[in-house]
Amino acid sequence: MFSAQQKPVQIAFLSDIHFQDLYGSFSDNDFKGIVNPKTGKPTILRTMDAQLHSTRIFNENYFAFLKALDDIAKKGIKIVAMPGDFSDDGQAYNLRGLHKILDEYHEKFGIEFYLTTGNHDPVGPFRQEGGKDDFLGENGNQLGIYSKENIGKTDHKIITRDIAESGYLEILDELKDFGFYPKKQDLFWSTPFTPYSSKDYSYEKALQNAAYTKRMYNVAQNFSVPDLSYVTEPLKGVWLMAIDGNTYIPRNLNGSSKDPENYKGASIGYNNVLTHKKHLIDWVKRTMAEAKKNGKTVIAFTHYPMIDFNDGATQEIKSLLGEKKWQMERVPDEEVAKVFAEAGLQIHFAGHMHINDTGIRTINGKMLVNIQVPSLAAYIPAYKILTIHSPDLMEIHTEVLNDVPRFNELFPLYEKEYNTLQESADRTIWNKDILKSVSYHDFMLFHLKELVRLRMIPDDWPKDFIERTRNFSGKDILLLIQNNEDLKKSEIDTEAFRQWKTEDLLLDLYKFQSADELAKKDMSRERLQQYKILEKIFSIYKGQNPLLINFKKIFKIMSLLSSGDPADHFEINLKKNAVIRL
Prior knowledge:
This protein is an alpha/beta fold.
């Protein structure tokens, strides 16, 4: 239990770092990357084109990670939990680079790291050949780096086994010091498979039970795969519970259980845990009961959300865009929150979605709070700090990374890439203005803007709606629903609505989806007011015009996404089952 003398316990949560080692090296190939004219350093990086078509960046997050760790060290925080996707596909050279950085911060500042796996580490339960064709080559062209000669489509390629996607075994071997194995100073450590309780704990017993072979379960008949979940007591009275939410389900039950290709990816998250990884639910139940008996405070973290993260807008989004768009398959069923709340879980940190959000469910008097940790590799780049004031009172603070030293270090290399792309001119080219970004925050906001333009709108939105409304200004949208006379009467300044178009509205919608209430800092008060007016007017529309119905849905979704539960700075009171904005 916490004593009155004890300082509040602080834990930082860093999720979805998607670490790629810009300055790494391969064990079996001399290639060190291409030389950056600005620094003279060889650099292994992905193209800007690849970054702007992806929900994450691959390169600048390297600098953001260092900045976050410097911040944490300065604040004197000694425990860092990482809810998965700490690597980008678990390649050996990236895992080595990550290991080195974590070691450095541990030795220099005494920070203890606790990791759990995400769907990018590992990509499947066992090691598989891999590689990417979108690294940047010497002359601004694409370069392929593959683990085997016969894969990949590019002409220019590098072959190294260090780009293969590691399985659980390789990840455990490389990163065992970061929670996956017991640390000598931990007061307790166990897994879903250990036979001992906290009363008869010893480091020696824990060490024996940490072995890879002792952490297997059957995901289907005759399909034995690893589960790297664990619970540990890094500080007296606090249990950190790292749940491995990856569920790798066989594609073909008659196929080989050893074939890494014979498993589906894990990105769906907890819905698959309920059907194929039920032992985790029993484990959570047992652990919570034991914690309660011994007066321990349990903080859980996994890669995947346990609660719907769309602030009540899921049905509206589905009816606007369809069941399969806007990453709908990743939304957990309500059953997930119910099962874990009933198992006694109260505080859960998650990543995966690269968004800032808080979800709350109270089921039969039991409250579960799911805190979505943003990614350092997407808008809005941030991490969370949990302060445990007492077993019943927690404070959550969101730390946004606005300024990151060296974030523009690679810009000269992108200039090269842009010039090469311009010569080929057979595709939509990225907007070079991103290289004018003056801060990391601006850079990530620009990334979101380009991602929406190049990927989200073409993939998720009905083509006819986009083509028809492309040149609509806010004023045009206002006039769709109200005539000039009524507007004059209500004294709305219609001219002010001319300042933005449909594309700005959709970008703002994605800002709210990504950053929740923090997105308001990236919009003018006037614009927010105009959206409120439109939401109000459209909400009373009862007609059948499909275009008006679509706009009605858009404003409803925006209203819900912008007014959810507190997601910046708030307090969780477990005694009162309340979450209070601070």
